Amino acid sequence: MKYLDLFPKTIKQAPAGAESTNHRLLVRGGFIDQLMAGSWTLLPLGYKVVSKIVQIIREEMDATGAQEMLMPLLHPKEVWERSGRWNKTDVKEIMYQFEDIRGREVGLAITHEEIVMDLLGKHVSSYKDLPVKVYHFSTKFRNELRARSGILRGREFMMKDLYSAHVSEEELFKYYEEVKQAYLKIFQRIGLEVRVVEASGGIFTDKYTHEFQALVESGEDIIYYCQSCDFARNKEIFNGKEGDKCPQCRGVIKAANSIEVGNIFPLGTKYSKDMKVFYKDEKGQDKPIWFASYGIGPTRVMGALVEVFHDEKGIIWPESVAPYQVHLVGLDLSETQIRIKAEDIYNRLQTAGVEVLYDDRADVTAGEKFADADLLGVPYRVVVSKKTEDKLEVKKRNRAEVEFLSYDELLGKLKTT
Amino acid sequence: MKYLDLFPKTIKQAPAGAESTNHRLLVRGGFIDQLMAGSWTLLPLGYKVVSKIVQIIREEMDATGAQEMLMPLLHPKEVWERSGRWNKTDVKEIMYQFEDIRGREVGLAITHEEIVMDLLGKHVSSYKDLPVKVYHFSTKFRNELRARSGILRGREFMMKDLYSAHVSEEELFKYYEEVKQAYLKIFQRIGLEVRVVEASGGIFTDKYTHEFQALVESGEDIIYYCQSCDFARNKEIFNGKEGDKCPQCRGVIKAANSIEVGNIFPLGTKYSKDMKVFYKDEKGQDKPIWFASYGIGPTRVMGALVEVFHDEKGIIWPESVAPYQVHLVGLDLSETQIRIKAEDIYNRLQTAGVEVLYDDRADVTAGEKFADADLLGVPYRVVVSKKTEDKLEVKKRNRAEVEFLSYDELLGKLKTT
Predict the structure, then answer these.
(1) CA B190, B191, B192, B195 torsion: positive or negative?
(2) Where are the alpha helices (DSSP H) in A124-210?
(3) C-alpha span between A309 and A201 (Å, rounded)
């Protein structure tokens, strides 16, 4: 992609009222644009990052044997009444519910347990039809009282939600554990360090659930975790304070701010019983379906990454989700020789399968170009200029040193990372 | 994918009230599931087909230099008031408009011209920032009075919409023509024969626009076209009848039923002027932006394909969008030797990169398996049974003949198609 073709360009001024780092940097970099409070367009650069996060999640979901599909966003009241959630106060507070012109009451998707259960009711009759593991990437709407923290807490956002249905508690927890490991692998591939934290089930279940929390100083959540073992609890269910002894291993409890980037809910048989969706066992008897749901918000993950990986100059994307691998900066482009060389490097890198953003502006200073490269946070900055002669000036975004490499040396470096 | 793992299984009975072929066959095959009138879940098989359609569209959009992004679905009233469309009767009839709990009026996306214009207003200042070509795949909501024709006319459906912004009418029509050609290439790759038809602009523009119409007997639209040249008009703007002389070449006009699978709108400067979004030209003067939009509904395309490609037994998918390339049918699977051979063929095909659906059911008759294969419409049916010995029985879905091939012969056949 040539910078002159990229829509939109970077913005020098931070947006008014941007309190959080992800809001400030993602807007300035042209990754996202605010339509209204809590509602964002993923601009081409932001869409690229989110697509890479989505693809990593997809691969790990498929590896668990889950199947991708796509469910509707407008939900009929009747389906939500079957679970008893339509009229729950804490659901009504966040679900957009309204009448269509024919007087039919509908709600916008806050989550999809009811819709999956409805599907299971239509398509599962016997134990032979289980397990079912289905997921989708789609929009969720939540009428948050105060949308804030940039793209971290929106009224409309992208979610991957997986649902699994099983014949028994044992089968459910076997798969639940498999998904927990898949989630850890996802966050490892994305480059985000997380803790698995026990939490309350909120509007989903009375049981404890698990959150995946990224430790970030700017995070709105508070978790208590043990420094010696895997004990970790969300503030809401931890009765204690920093410095207490770990109830599991007697180690020392620490408190930390964090951002929730995923959650998994072992919902048990509640939805099956409430919605009267059963399967027939080997003896032909009706049995409740064991059910669980598992969420990750790709747009929220992008925001969390920026909160973790940035410096005063801009974003520092992990390589696995960076919008481009190389930010090629052409300097002295008014000189034909240099321009030809820069274009040549651009074309050769692209042909080699490297994703390149090429700053082809001729009327901008080196300082401005470097500032934009730092803001956008692409892992490798490669400069072609009079000074670089037959070499390329290569700098990693997260390092201070500059190296002078030949094209082949650069390519070798890129291929091994 | 093993059939025993696939969610859901095929259904023997056509759904009640299914008037159209796509409704009947897609539901019976487990491609889609109806949540409410006009609202469908794309089940794993249906999602696979739509994903392939999406990928073809994406490649051809990218080839025109367009950039993918993702815009929100909840739109603030204020942005739609700027174009004057919020209160238009024909918009109000199909747009879900409601108040959120804070009394803010919002509407669900019926299209995105206003949102793109709002983006251009924020990010385009000079002629140097143009052209802009951006698109997304996302959900559209239309409160159709009568949702019908299966997945062809939904209240919620997937749409690819591209928007382009230019400095002049000339530039706009140059790109408009490029997109028209890209659309023709898309439908050619998908395997759908279309006519480019002049039509009225509806709620979009007062000017004529172009529809891409697939000629199908079951189609709800009627078009008049010339058998000797490219003249073609939608019923609404054609003042004539079948048998008339073509106003362009004096050939004979024919009438035909059709399904609209795409449309392109040269919107001109209307939105720019109405919403007061201008660019500065070389002299620093404000000029209106030339604007166009271009839509294809991937879910509707899937429905249209079924209307065109089916027989009394089921669907006949074009190879480019089929959910799998091979439907491997194992017969006599109670015999260990045969089961081992079938599994081996399944694994080898998958390793070779062939997408295979393997019917691994042991308790089902050959007749039932063949009926399901015909219903699902995968291009190649490959049978492993006692009878096939060291060969494979290969039949194309759209042919009657059966061939006996070795594994290598089959693979060669698949790779060349």
Answers:
(1) positive
(2) 169-190
(3) 30
B143 touches A at CB < 8 Å:
yes
Go through the domains of chain B in sequence order and give each one's CATH number. Answer: 21-311 (3.30.930.10), 326-416 (3.40.50.800)
Preceding amide of B288 cis, omega within 30: no
Q: Which residues pair with A58 in a beta bridge?
A: none
Nearest CB neighbour to B72, from listed A6, A73, A156:
A156
Sign for the CA dihedral angle at A350, A353, A354, A357 comes to: positive
Residues of B in contact with A46 (CB under 8 A): 69
Please answer yes or no on whether A44 and B69 come within 8 Å at the CB atom: yes
**Cβ contacts of A39 on chain B, cutoff 8 Å:** 72, 74
Answer yes or no: is pLDDT of A219 > 80.
yes
A160 Cα to chain B: minimum distance (Å): 15
How far apart are the C-alpha atoms of A309 and A12, rounded to whole Å? 20
For chain B, counts of helices (H) and of strands (E): 11, 23
Predicted TM-score (pTM) of this structure: 0.97
Q: Which of residues 221-280 of B touch A (CB under 8 A)?
A: none
- Comparing CA positions, the residue from A273, A289, A291, A292 lying closest to residue A127 is A289
Q: What is the DSSP string of A213-251?
A: EEE-TT-SEEEEEESSSS-EEEGGG--S-TTPBPTTTS-
Block mean pLDDT (10 aa), chain B, length 417:
98 89 97 96 98 98 98 98 96 93 91 98 97 98 84 94 97 97 98 94 76 95 95 93 94 96 96 98 98 97 98 98 98 96 97 97 96 98 95 97 97 86
Nearest by CB to residue A156, choosing from B8, B67, B73, is B73
Q: Which residue has the tokens 């959910």?
A: B323
Question: What is the pLDDT, as a whole number, of residue A417?
Answer: 63
End-to-end Cα separation, chain B, in angstroms = 21
Amino acid B417: pLDDT: 63
Structure tokens given for A359: 């700053």
